[in-house]
Design goal:
Elements (H helix, E strand, L loop, with lengths): L1 E3 L15 E3 L19 H4 L10 H10 L2 E7 L2 E10 L5 E10 L4 E10 L6 E10 L4 E9 L5 E10 L4 E8 L4 E10 L5 E10 L4 E10 L5 E10 L4 E10 L7 E10 L5 E10 L5 E9 L3 H8 L5 H17 L5 H15 L1
Parallel strand pairs: 3-5, 4-6, 5-7, 6-8, 7-9, 8-10, 9-11, 10-12, 11-13, 12-14, 13-15, 14-16, 15-17, 16-18
Antiparallel strand pairs: 1-2
Helix pairs in contact: 3-4, 4-5
Length: about 350
């Protein structure tokens, strides 16, 4: 068994919140992409000395079985999209995405992961981001693998002065999915922003662990997570704001709103606030509940049936996150899949 998504600050062991355990993973190395031009410079990777990831074992697995490695270097206003479609005989992906946003650059990167319905896919992504002074990056991660698959994301970002990194994350696939993101806000007035949407149904499991580390003055972070649980789905979310010494006048907030469609779902929310500095603002909130009956009655009284009314309410939770995706076709595809699964 392997421990994954361990909390940065442990609580009582009896709560079962500190970590989750998964079976040891056995995979083989296959060719997914053989274009040598995509290879990453070793020097860029060596700049990251912070520990990050779902677990050390998952990071090592990526190194050993890596079959896709790309390096992005943004210096101006740029938009790039990559689609990863896992199919039979190419159903295992261990990819590394290394992103260098140079001073003053303004970039958008969309990474869309999907698979054929009949295969059992495995995806293990390692994503490194370095944002230089006065740069901006929006990274959109979409995970819509089929319900037989497993997905792991290990992500880290380092932000210099006045840098702004926004993560837009959409999780609507996989039998089991594990996410870990650590953002180190190292420069004065830098900003980290997270917007996440998830829809988990059937007997699927989703595990999210976000850690935002404030290290300099007047830094900002915002974490907004909107999700829906259905059938016998289970979700665990841990969000941590960590204000280090030197982060005076910094502000951070984290919010999660969960709509539970059935009484058989399981929901765990673990908001953590750590402060080692004076004069900071840290806010956290978690809300979970069933669909409001009065709202449901109001919508059905306007001519919609029960399923249509539920769809409207659920879309009102998810769509605000999808609106951050500047790819209308992709956003519509995600929304259409959610609509089908609501019914």
């Amino acid at each position: 068994m392997t421990s994954v998504n361990r909390l940065p600050h442990l609580t009582w062991r009896e709560t079962g919140a500190n970590e989750v355990f998964i079976d040891d993973i056995k995979i083989e190395k296959i060719i997914f992409k053989s274009d040598e031009r995509l290879k990453t410079s070793k020097e860029f990777i060596e700049q990251f000395d912070e520990e990050f990831g779902v677990s050390k074992e998952i990071i090592e697995l990526n190194k050993e079985y890596q079959n896709y490695d790309e390096y992005f270097e943004f210096s101006g206003n740029e938009e790039v999209k990559r689609e990863f479609h896992l199919v039979e005989n190419q159903n295992i992906l261990n990819d590394a995405q290394n992103i260098f946003v140079k001073e003053g650059a303004d970039a958008t990167l969309i990474l869309d992961y999907k698979s054929d319905e009949e295969i059992e896919a495995f995806r293990n992504s390692v994503i490194r981001i370095k944002a230089q002074k006065n740069s901006k990056l929006q990274i959109v991660l979409v995970q819509r693998l089929n319900h037989k698959s497993k997905s792991f994301i290990s992500m880290v970002s380092e932000l210099e002065e006045d840098a702004h990194v926004q993560l837009v994350q959409v999780e609507i696939g996989s039998l089991k999915s594990y996410l870990n993101y650590k953002a180190f806000i190292n420069g004065e007035k830098a900003e980290s922003d997270i917007k996440t949407a998830y829809f988990v149904d059937d007997e699927r499991y989703l595990d999210i662990n976000y850690l935002i580390v404030h290290r300099d003055r007047e830094t900002r972070s915002d974490m907004l997570v909107n999700g829906v649980l259905k059938d016998k789905a289970e979700k665990r979310f841990a969000g941590t704001l960590d204000f280090k010494r030197g982060s005076t006048l910094s502000e951070g907030s984290e919010e999660e709103f969960v709509t539970m469609l059935d009484p058989t779902v399981k929901n765990r929310a673990i908001p953590i606030l750590l402060a080692r500095e004076d004069n900071i603002v840290g806010l956290h909130a978690a809300s979970a509940g069933r669909i409001d009956k009065d709202m449901l009655f109001y919508i059905t009284s306007r001519g919609f049936n029960q399923n249509e009314a539920k769809r409207i309410i659920i879309e009102s939770k998810i769509k605000p996150i999808l609106d951050y995706i500047d790819d209308e076709k992709l956003a519509n595809e995600i929304l259409e899949e959610i609509r089908e699964r609501i019914n």
